[in-house]
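step=encode ok
step=design start
structure_in=
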């Protein structure tokens, strides 16, 4: 093994780990007796700097070039600079930095150094799985991410809801890890390899067996937990409600980006075959489409009954996971091509189209969700509650905060010209353009109809903020840094909505020349 290439391959992850250690040393050794505000500012500054340096390190190592290490054949790499890893890893770093900035003004813990360090370590796991091409690396990255999320959920030690949410999250996470590892063991038993590419080639040569489908279902169960897809979603409402606001924002954004990047990686490993492997696609697609449809229906309908805005966002996240899974499932729906000889060029262009749409969706959704939890955290600190009635008269109590909430919730609902509209439009157009058959078409129609349902429950919050009279008209104050971050996120949502080609062009810049 070439350890120089190994070090360069993991340079961004190494930078984040060093930043986490530096945060701990500075906070515990030098600022132990300093004021809490000073410690928070120092930890956040070091954490954000670590994210910036890690972002620079990705380009220094020439992220856009495909390379590998671990075996002589670069196609059997443990980590690979596949084109979809660049946008996902960049998004993880940006969203992590925004999450850390929202920590300023929070008072749920005095152990700020530990909190920032755990966030950086969890982000490291996200970076690993975004570009992983080996089952062992995938599992290590997922566990590093998951363990960090369990700790972050329980970080509000004075809150019983936080402890309960963390325990549920941990128990469900342990079961999902068991399903995932069991599925991976079947893949290894069938092919004798842990490389995604080698597994794909072996299955393409021998043809899919019943055990292959069992393994695929187990893997979908494990990854379905990570993205909160039905029926693996039961942890999400309690976790979103009980976790500290910065932790909930991190779970709802960074964890989703990393997990869906992994789903893209797994699905594209199967979608690269020009031989017998393409025969397995309809069955694999059917599983994902079933989960996607159930997630859209359950998420949107359950959100209608919520009075907690956090739980509303949790069920909304389940619905959004269903939308995104439609795009992931489209990777398998190219089996309708007339012949395998047509497959290579057509599938490559179609795969880029659907992958672009999925990446566009998860990045914009993550950005919007962080802003939404930022607004909730400010309201919670002022009112002590995240219930809808806590937002009564928000436009009088803090007009800027109400304007940010308006922009973010309308974007989540898919209202033009905000970026959420283009995310849904691109995704649904890609599914219809790539997939053939009545089932994908029917699911897209269902998704459009349920988007109208989602507008109703988002408007319930906005109605309280803008229409219904306030019980308490005392001003709600936000920390200047928090307000600046929220305004920046809202501005990005508007600008990217008015100029959608900015983000899609940036994503396409990572693609290899065709």
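sequence_out=
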């Amino acid at each position: 093994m070439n350890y120089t290439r190994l070090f360069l391959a993991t340079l961004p992850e190494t930078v984040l780990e060093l930043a986490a250690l530096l945060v701990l040393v500075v906070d515990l050794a030098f600022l132990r007796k300093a004021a809490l505000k000073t410690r928070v500012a120092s930890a956040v500054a070091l954490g954000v700097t670590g994210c910036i340096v890690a972002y620079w390190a990705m380009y220094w190592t020439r992220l856009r070039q495909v390379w590998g290490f671990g075996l002589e054949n670069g196609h059997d790499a443990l980590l690979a600079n596949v084109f979809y890893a660049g946008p996902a890893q960049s998004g993880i770093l940006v969203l992590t930095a925004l999450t850390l900035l929202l920590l300023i003004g929070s008072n749920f813990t005095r152990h700020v150094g530990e909190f920032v360090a755990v966030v950086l370590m969890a982000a490291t796991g996200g970076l690993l799985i975004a570009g992983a091409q080996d089952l062992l690396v995938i599992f290590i990255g997922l566990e590093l991410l998951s363990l960090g999320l369990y700790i972050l959920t329980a970080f509000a030690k004075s809150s019983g809801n936080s402890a309960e949410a963390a325990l549920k999250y941990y128990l469900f996470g342990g079961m999902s890890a068991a399903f995932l590892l069991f599925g991976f063991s079947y893949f290894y038993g069938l092919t004798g390899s842990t490389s995604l590419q080698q597994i794909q080639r072996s299955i393409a040569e021998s043809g899919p067996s019943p055990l292959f489908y069992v393994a695929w279902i187990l893997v979908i169960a494990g990854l379905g937990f990570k993205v909160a897809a039905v029926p693996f979603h039961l942890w999400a409402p309690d976790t979103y409600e009980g976790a500290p606001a910065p932790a909930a924002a991190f779970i709802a954004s960074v964890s989703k980006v990393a997990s869906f990047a992994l789903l893209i990686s797994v699905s594209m490993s199967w979608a690269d075959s020009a031989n017998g492997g393409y025969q397995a696609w309809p069955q694999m697609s059917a599983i994902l489409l079933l989960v996607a449809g159930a997630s859209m229906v359950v998420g949107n309908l359950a959100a209608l009954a919520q009075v907690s805005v956090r739980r509303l966002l949790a069920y909304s996240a389940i619905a959004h996971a269903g939308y995104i899974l439609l795009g992931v499932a489209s990777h398998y729906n190219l089996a309708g091509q007339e012949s395998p000889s047509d497959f290579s060029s057509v599938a490559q262009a179609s795969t880029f189209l659907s992958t672009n749409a999925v990446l566009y969706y998860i990045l914009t959704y993550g950005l919007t969700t962080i802003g939404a939890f930022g607004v909730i955290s400010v309201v919670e600190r002022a009112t002590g509650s995240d219930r809808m009635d806590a937002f009564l008269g928000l436009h009088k109590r803090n007009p800027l905060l109400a304007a940010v909430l308006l922009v973010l919730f309308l974007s989540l609902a898919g209202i033009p010209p905000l970026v959420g509209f283009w995310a849904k439009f691109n995704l649904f157009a890609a599914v219809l353009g790539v997939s053939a058959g009545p089932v994908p078409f029917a699911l897209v129609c269902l998704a459009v109809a349920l988007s109208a349902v989602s507008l109703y429950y988002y408007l319930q919050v906005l109605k309280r903020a803008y229409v219904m009279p306030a019980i308490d008209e005392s001003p709600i104050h936000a920390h200047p840094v928090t307000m600046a971050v929220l305004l920046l996120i809202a501005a990005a949502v508007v600008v990217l909505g008015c100029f959608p080609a900015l983000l899609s062009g940036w994503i396409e810049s990572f693609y290899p020349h065709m």
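step=design ok
step=annotate ok -> DSSP finds 20 helices and no strands in the chain.
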